Amino acid sequence: MSILSDLQIERVAHSRRESVDYDALSFAGPFSDHMFSMEWEAGRWQNPRIMPYAPLSIEPGNATLHYGQSVFEGLKAFRGVDAKVRIFRPDRNAERLRQSCERLCIPQVDSGVFIEAVERIVEIEKDWIPERRGESLYIRPLIFADETHLEVRPSLRYRMLILTSPVGSYFDRSSPAVTLKVEDVYTRSAPGGTGAAKTAGNYAASLYPAALAREEGYMQVLWLDGVEHRYIEEVGAMNIFFSIDGKIITPELRGTILPGVTRDAAIALLRENGHEVIERRIAIDEIVEASQKGKLDEAFGAGTAAVISPVGTMAYRGEEIRVNANASGPTTQWLYDRITGIQLGEVDDPHRWCRVLSI
Ligand code: COI
After folding, report:
1. What is the Å distance from ligand 1's center to 260 Cα?
2. Domain spanning 178-343: which CATH class is it, in words?
3. Of all protein residues, whose CA lies closest to atom 6 belonging to ligand 1?
């Protein structure tokens, strides 16, 4: 029997939904009325409940605040053109969360429990789901150490929460394509590190180089490998793809980049559409050379928040590589339309990636 069979539900007295401007959704919040919560204590997950979204009470000595033992996920629910609610590939997020937990010494959550918890919070918050293409209810599961201690060791108590938030585009819509600074000083991860885990520290460590990139006028950082500062890794908020001379190339998974759920979907859909997709190491020099020879046709990122986002500029060592005149190329656009079409129920979902809720 699932531990969610005794899920307790406490509803808010008054929803904040009406105060949200659905004509101006970005990726900045707000969070919706309720959140899912459960605790790991005495060696098991317990006390599952859906409760009003509210501040937590945390002791100053909480281990997460000091040592960052926390992991999170990101997935989305959509209101389809048939008015049905679809959640995109929660099984993949459940699996990645398990892997992140293992790397961070956090107790794992059963995939079935994870998926059911996601479904239950989305059911409760269904009126918060936006309806327009490019918008969704973003789902943010997180687990953190919830014990007060000073030693550097895995905690004995944890808290899992699932928050939701109506969101629009992750990137500023006034820019037609994402601009990247290729970072060749700071690195995001190294072999044997936590690069493949979705853990808070990876994101904290990216903030300083990202701030420097923004000062130089670029929206995001394109990370290179942590050993040679030569091979392309990812963007932090998305995995990266290049269309070069008729082939699609994306960095292979070597334990240093996030195994993106949208990355996986993009590879499958492109291959089904007849594209040759190659997962391999790709040096930044190769991109520079392809651009110089006029063979760099498109570049795009793939991520849950970013969806499929065209990349228009990559700045490397003071030179700018321009891609497709800063516009979304045909492959990028096709992929965006295809993925969002599946998520909105406009086209067939042959892989059954979407879980359609019966609400
Ligand atoms: C996501 O795409 O869901 C992420 O977690 C990336 C984050 C930087 C918004």
Report:
1. 10
2. alpha beta
3. 237
